[in-house]
Fold:
Amino acid sequence: MPRLEFWYEFASNYAFLSAMRIESLAAARGVEIVWRPFLLGPIFRAQGWTTSPFNLFPAKGRHMRRDMARIAAARGLPLVWPEVFPAETLTAARLALIGESAGWVAPFSKAVYAAEFQEGRDVSRREVLTEILEGLGLDAPALMAEAASDPVRAALRARTEAAIAHDIFGAPSFVTPDGELFWGDDRLEQALDWCVAAPP
Amino acid sequence: MPRLEFWYEFASNYAFLSAMRIESLAAARGVEIVWRPFLLGPIFRAQGWTTSPFNLFPAKGRHMRRDMARIAAARGLPLVWPEVFPAETLTAARLALIGESAGWVAPFSKAVYAAEFQEGRDVSRREVLTEILEGLGLDAPALMAEAASDPVRAALRARTEAAIAHDIFGAPSFVTPDGELFWGDDRLEQALDWCVAAPP
Structure:
């Protein structure tokens, strides 16, 4: 089965759009999704951006908000803008990395995005993440402690370095088995189709 | 008939994609296209950018080149990357403004884009623009002189001010009769559908 890597940052609203539809689109094409959480902050900072481009460039930010509202309405997707944007996503990303090994990265990631963009909550907050973990039947205190451990911190740094090595500069990004990079929720179908068409 | 404003900058490769398909898509939906050439340079400079973001952010530029190649191939569209990118488009934009009043803005604009992105030519060059005008059966020397006149210069400055007033920050952009702004070739179908669905 062809595999598509889904590279996402929890603060990215367009990655939220992809997270909520990638599994059904992939299943329809017989593609396996590999969830790859990473941090955009270090990549943005390396090019001189201290926050989201949607905050740095206000007209771009205003268009994005309308674009999101139009797309969410067209897809029948609830959308509640988060109280803090962009969210600080360090702990959420570390937890997602643990979930990758443990097998719950997809439901955890979708629950984080739902809390952030469908309930408007601040997913940097410890109690929000605890509630999400408990909602999945997981041992929240143990996982929060593990998320702060040196191996998990190092793994997230390595993941973000891997994103840079793939030439990733934004989220969502999709990487095919033959190394083709697609950026943006509006390129998700193209990326999946590329996976299916490319030789194994 | 609903009208959609197509705001474009000749240096924009994604606006090239839209220019080559907007008329057939609009005709299929019964939408009239209003061609609105403007300059992105002053808008980019106001936010501190001295050239195209695809040059300022190299990873973004590398992705754009692949994205363009994939989309052009899927659409059966010839694509030859221009020798100079982004092109200096001041004279081309002034000529297009004259063409708006005179009724040849659409064929002229498509011919400029074809020379730039399908033949790889530098459309800042006087001889390239002259050849395009002559190819349309127009009086090139007279039009080149008119393009340098004060009224045309003032009209292009006013047009770019109007783009800013519409909150336009990139190209292509589409503005519907009820003031909705859509950015990007990948939003063209949405913009046209919005025009058709919106009350007159």
